[in-house]
Amino acid sequence: MKLQRLGSTDLRVSAMGVGMAALGRPGYINIGHGDDLERNYHVADMERRAHNVLDAAWNRGVRYFDAARSYGRAEAFLGSWLRDRGDLADTVVIGSKWGYTYKADWQVAAHAHEVKDHSLPVLRRQWAESLATLGRRPDLYQIHSATLESGVLENTPVLGELARIKGDGVVIGLSVSGPRQREVIERALSLKVDGIGLFDCVQATWNLLERSAEPALALAAGKGVGVIVKEGLANGRLTERNISPEFEPKLASLNRIARRLETSVDALALAAVLARPWAGVVLSGAACVEHLASNLTAVETVLDDAAVSALEELTELPETYWQIRSKLAWN
Ligand SMILES: NC(=O)c1ccc[n+]([C@@H]2O[C@H](COP(=O)([O-])OP(=O)(O)OC[C@H]3O[C@@H](n4cnc5c(N)ncnc54)[C@H](OP(=O)(O)O)[C@@H]3O)[C@@H](O)[C@H]2O)c1
Questions:
Q1: What is the pLDDT of residues 32-68, one digit of tens each?
Q2: pLDDT at residue 25 in the model
Q3: Mutation test of ligand 1: which of 241, 321, 330 has the most ligand atoms closer than 8 Å to its C-beta?
Q4: Is 266 exposed, middle or buried, given 0-12, 13-18 or 19+ CB atoms closer than 10 A?
Q5: Which residue range is the domain that position 160 belongs to?
Q6: Does residue 2 lie within any of the structural domains?
Q7: Does 196 reside within a domain?
Q8: Rounded-to-integer distance, Cα 264 and Cα 53, Å
Q9: 83 within domain boundaries
Q10: Residue 1, in any domain of the structure
Q11: What is the tens place of the pLDDT at every residue in 71-127?
């Protein structure tokens, strides 16, 4: 996979990256997560699984890996992989996030899986934890799911601390979720600390069902801010695994187009993300090597005009999309 700069930063990334939300813990909301892990939650086995996916990704040219403090042991698994693989550690770009604390105690079902707190003490604690757990500085550190309501984009002490970390050479970013992604990105793009823009990267959801962040993401890329796209498969809803009766006509359409273009449904959906001119890195959230391999074929999948216009029919209202997502079961 060809390497390119992430926005105007000095980071050189592959067009596709691997996200570790599903690889670091027993429970997640992705469809079929429990099946992927074969319901084997032994830490050593989960670490081996994560390393296998990371190896397969690296061997296929992936050079961006995305973790977070709240993804269970994702940072620890990434850290042990970097240590085990020696020199390879210098070839990859590592992103992580702060602002949610993992609370599920290695259980699939939990009262609260992650607790959100975007305060200065949490930033300081989690930055130290990320450094220790990864065994090196992340190249990119992101506010995890910044919202207007949380006040994090107005929190002067937090913004000052992020500017200090940026001064040490770390790219500062934010991730966003929910129907107001566009507003949060626009607010973040206008934010300055001591006259300098703080954020050099934004991570957002864009997929064939939820396209509402597109204008803000195009604006970000135009300003030289790197764009990372998450949930390109809508947590598995844009795969063969989505057997929901309401989705049946849309899956049939995806299957028809995928067959005609001689690709898979997941590669087709991810190819549509890769085709956005503003997309810097498109994440695969695969938890097994087989799905990862299928996802990565998206880089060879070319959409024609007929496919582009048929795929536009799949779009949902943002409120509907996020409501469905909020009901996905932890498994
Ligand atoms: N707020 C935030 O900052 C935030 C929020 C969400 C995600 N993220 C980041 O984005 C990354 C990706 O998000 P995501 O996990 O939601 O990704 P996604 O790509 O939308 O969904 C991944 C799901 O699709 C399934 N899948 C992929 N290929 C498949 C195939 N060929 N057949 C059947 N199922 C297939 C995967 O199954 P398998 O597990 O079997 O591979 C997994 O369940 C995360 O890991 C994380 O790094 C960030």
A1: 999 989 999 999 999 999 999 999 999 999 999 999 9
A2: 97
A3: 241
A4: buried
A5: 13-326
A6: no
A7: yes
A8: 19
A9: yes
A10: no
A11: 999 999 999 999 999 989 999 999 999 999 999 999 999 989 999 999 999 999 999
Rounded Cα gap, residues 30 and 19, in angstroms? 12
Ligand 1 centre to CA of 218 (Å) is 23
Please choose, from the candidates 35, 30, 28, 85, the residue with its C-alpha nearest in 3D space to the C-alpha of residue 56: 85
What would the two tokens of residue 256 be? Answer: 């028809």
Backbone φ and ψ for 140, nearest 5 degrees, come out as -135, 130
Amino acid found at 21: A
In sequence order, what are the residues at sequence separation of 6 or more whose Cβ sits closer than 8 angstroms to the Cβ of residue 24?
Answer: 46, 50, 67, 71, 72, 73, 74, 75, 76, 77
Q: Establish whether residue 175 lines the binding site of ligand 1, counting it when its CB lies within 6 angstroms of any ligand atom.
A: yes
Cα 19 from Cα 54, distance rounded (Å): 10
Closest CA to 174 of 164, 87, 186: 186
* Gyration radius from the chain CA atoms: 19
Global pTM?
0.97
Residue among 23, 30, 65, 118 to mutate when testing ligand 1 (max atoms within 8 A of CB): 30
Domain of residue 95, CATH code:
3.20.20.100
Looking at the structure of the chain, the number of domains it has is 1
pLDDT of the residue at 218? 98
Contact at 8 Å (CB) between 213 and 205?
Answer: yes
The conformational region for residue 99 under phi > 0 = left, psi -120 to 50 = alpha, else beta, is: left
Mean pLDDT of 179-199: 97
Strand segments (E) across the chain: 3-5, 12-14, 16-19, 64-66, 93-98, 100-102, 114-116, 140-143, 171-175, 192-193, 196-197, 201-205, 226-230, 281-284
